[in-house]
Amino acid sequence: MLKVGGLNLGNPVMLASGILGSYVSSLNRIAEHAGAVVTKSVGLKGREGYKNPCVLKLECGFLNAVGLASPPARDFARELEGFNRLCPLIVSLFGSSPEEFKELVEIFEVADAFELNFSCPHAKGLGLEVGMDFDLVYEIVKTLKGKTEKPVFAKLSANLDYVELAKVCESAGVDGVVVTNTLRGLAIDIVAKKPILSNVSGGLSGKAIKPIALKCVWDLFEEVEVPVIGCGGISNWKDVVEFMLAGAVAVQVGSIFYYGYDVIQKILEGLKSYLRINRLSLDEIVGLAHKR
Ligand SMILES: Cc1cc2nc3c(=O)[nH]c(=O)nc-3n(C[C@H](O)[C@H](O)[C@H](O)COP(=O)(O)O)c2cc1C
């Protein structure tokens, strides 16, 4: 059993937020193999999200501006009552004030832990825009840590000064940081001569962002004490080993699920063989690349 910020995980590979929509059936399927599953981000009121096209496949990954589309919190909490509990359930929350986040924590009794979305790059007044206000982030984390005994993780973005923000979260008592969310990006249709996404810009995920996410993990491992969870462009077990050698205690996988549901099983098989061949334990590889 692996302990990450007070949460017991069967293995270090989690499902990243937002990847499989807001239905519990998909989470239940992934929970059979995952270390933990993170839900789609949810706020107090439902959000429709942006019009199509809102997800675009690129050669190097995906660009999306779904716009935090989600059901109202109470409806989603009811949906999550059907979670099979084969692994911990982390509920991802968005909001714009400590009071909103506090109410969300009360609603999601079903959660084993919370992930705070300070990083979505395409929702006005939410996500990344909240993450830019370090005082507000401090207040939100501090308020929640005074409210719940459950682990609280903060999801950060490489588009921000993530080291400073992680330190702010740490000083407010956060149990771990997740880095990174999608990164601001744009695509233009050269025939129509206009941006492709209905929201104009969106968030880039997948292979293209892996080196950026890896560098974030590397820096945070050196700068903060709290556990670092790596996310961004992970597509196989070798990527997971890289993230762990850089300092991640666990990882989240997202876009790669578009190519099949058996991603986590394959990663775990490869990771196990790597550890056996190298005669190392999971604990021993975390941050090992820093000992040069
Ligand atoms: C379609 C889509 C929806 C997403 N929705 C959310 C979300 O609701 N909350 C969140 O924190 N991250 C969301 N993300 C970001 C992912 O959780 C992840 O941080 C990002 O995609 C990088 O990981 P990846 O390269 O493995 O996909 C979303 C990503 C995609 C592609």
Describe the structure.
This protein has 292 residues and is an alpha/beta fold. The protein has a single domain (2-290), classed as Alpha-Beta Barrel (TIM Barrel), CATH 3.20.20.70. The protein contains ten helices and 16 strands. Strands 3-4-7-8-9-10-15-16 form an eight-stranded parallel beta barrel, surrounded by seven helices. The longest helix has 15 residues, at 263-277. It is globular. It starts with a strand and ends in a 7-residue tail after the last helix. The mean pLDDT is 97. The protein binds flavin mononucleotide (FMN). Flavin mononucleotide (FMN) binds at residues 16-19, 40-41, 55, 62, 64, 66, 68, 92, 117, 120, 155, 181-182, 205-206, 209, 231-234, 253-256.
